[in-house]
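Progress note, project year one: complex with 6-O-phosphono-beta-D-fructofuranose.
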Amino acid sequence: MKRIGVLTSGGDAPGMNACLRAIVRTASVKGLEVYGVLQGFKGLTEGRFQPMHLRSVSGIMHLGGTILKSSRYPRFLTAEARSEAAQKIREAGLDGLIAIGGNGTSTGAYHLWREHAIPILVCASTIDNDLYGTDFTIGFDTAVTTAVEAIDRIKDVAAAHDLIFFVEVMGRHRGFLALYAGLAGGCEEILLPEEPTDYDALSQRLMDGRRRGKTSSIVVVAEGDVPGGAFTVAEEVRKRTGLAVRVTVLGHIQRGGTPTPRDRILASRLGNAAVDFLIAGEQGKLVGEIKREIVLTPLKEAIERHKDIDQDLYQLSYLLSQ
Ligand code: F6P
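Model obtained:
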């Protein structure tokens, strides 16, 4: 293996740059040439490659976003787009590829590897943490931190005016971010896509809280919980309780910003390991961390299997917010 490519794809996540830095530095130290691919799979099909070296990744450890840029590129779901990408990879003389991203990235990488036998590994990175094959993904810790900071501020306002706030956090399909932000934020309710939402029971619990002396409450709603998200939930509760409600949607604020030290360390470990694994001949796998150990999981498994929500944390949040 002499020359490799690296790209960031899908939703950006804080720590992608730290991972890129680890990949470029590890590969350079081991004598490999590295090419950065601009704009993820879109740039791959267009052959948008740029040479990278030790100094190309100076001063990026603390930056959110991705200096390589990213893209949502549904066209990569077609075999035609993947053939174009494979052709560009061959023309550039790349012997392997490391992609940094989440579920969509792993899906694209899996098909590219399966159809064109291109040695490819994926470093697990998404604020959603919804990837099987790793306890945590790069970016999740920062997103939780950002959401909790916002919830802390909203609590001040809720308490000052005796309000119920519905705070919508990201997470289209899974509720990891909602669960961690809700527990760390000391919130009364956490609504996850994984659990059915019962408006009568929810309203009842919020009224019970009032009877126990609570004057305000925070309900964290995962984006994918119900159609309309936090706005729908707030309206259903208002209709049933008559209580004053407010909605805050945190949105893309959760994706940006300086990565936490925990995310930087995870990113550094996964990026470094990915290069070593690629050199050792591993391919078609997700690079993750389970119980502090670096672990490889076949991409097929990573995209087909589901990581479970920690029910103990879910129950704990209810107990402690009584
Ligand atoms: O996958 C990360 C994520 O931030 C999800 O939580 C969210 O649903 C989605 O991306 C939003 O994507 P976009 O920025 O493309 O609208």
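The mean pLDDT is 97.
The chain has two domains: 3-139+259-304, 142-255.
No further modelling is planned for this target in the current period.
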